[in-house]
Records
---
Amino acid sequence: MSTNSQNNDNQEIDLSEISKKIGGLYDAVLRSIFNVILFFKRKALILGLLFIIGAGLGFYVDLNKSYNSQIIVAPNGGVDYLYSKIDLIKSRLTERDKTFFKSIGINDSEKIQNIKIEPIVDLYNFVNNSTSAASAQNTQNFEVIKLLAESNDINKVIEDELTSKNYPYHSIVISSEGRIKSDNIIKPLLKYLNKDDYLNEISKISKENILIKMKKNEEEIVQIDSLITVISKNISKNNKSNNLVYNNENSEINAMFELKNKLINEIASQKIQLVKIENFIKDVSITPNVINNKGINGKMKLILPILFISLFVLISLFLAFYKNQSTKTE
């Protein structure tokens, strides 16, 4: 009986202690909230000044906007060359080598913050080039992708450096502080990228070969038209009862029409190829001076006030803690 009474007394004591601790914790939270309110009330003037100063500085910093200029290029057999040149420019940019940039015709290099190149992932065109001359290469590309995907994740294969460098289009992005002029930076950059004797010679020979093939195809089309005219005249002279001759000549005409259409399609593809190899690093599209709002760009008017106020609060808390500890020590 006495044991049960003692246990009940202990439980009542424990519950009482727990209630006191909860009440004390609640009071401590309320005191902390009140102290925070009191701190902001006492320091309202300083906090207001810090907010105004931070916002003012933020607006001033945001006036110097950051821009991205994108150049989409199609390297004709010079992908590794292109990437090595961009790496060289990036290293010279890090060193702020104005002499180098002036030597390649870029006089506003101080505006350039960064330059990078990355492939434009286009797996469909990589394995399905529309020109008939590329059918063998299409099959080879597809087999390579298929083989790599068997032992790796397909997304990793698509973005792998070995695969991505073989995509037809690549994006060069120039990050700059303030707007840049195409004549001062972009055009000299493209001229520099296309300044290679070996690749220029290859490009020249490729153009000559295409022009020769086009001329040959055009001559064949003229010959086919002449033959079709002759055969058509023969058909009109034939007796309608001579079905065997008529059918034979008719099939020959169909074959010639098919060959003519094939040659016409080849000439159309060759004209496109001539445009593509005008330069061995062909600029496909240029989009200059797009405002860069990624990261903290354009957001300093919000970041700086918060940063200044946070630093002030942290320093004030540290000083209060240090003063309190010093008092206890004394």
Note: The chain is about 70% helix and 10% strand.
---
Amino acid sequence: MTVEPHILDVRGDKCPIPIKKLRDTIRETPEGSKIHLLTDDLESRHDVPALLRRLKMPPALMIEAEVGFIFKIENQKL
């Protein structure tokens, strides 16, 4: 059985809102779950990796999409 990722769509939000919402989502989802962050804020390319490093989490896979970026995040501690 495959568990669907939690989709966090923050397109249209600008810094620091996407990072605040991601941090809240990380706290609210169980460890081991997957989070897909959809964003069009260019600052997220730097802010998401920095947040994950601070939280001692694995780096996200960043995919460029037509309408911004998709970050695939594993909610786990290193």
Note: The beta strands are 6-9, 34-39, 61-65, 68-74.
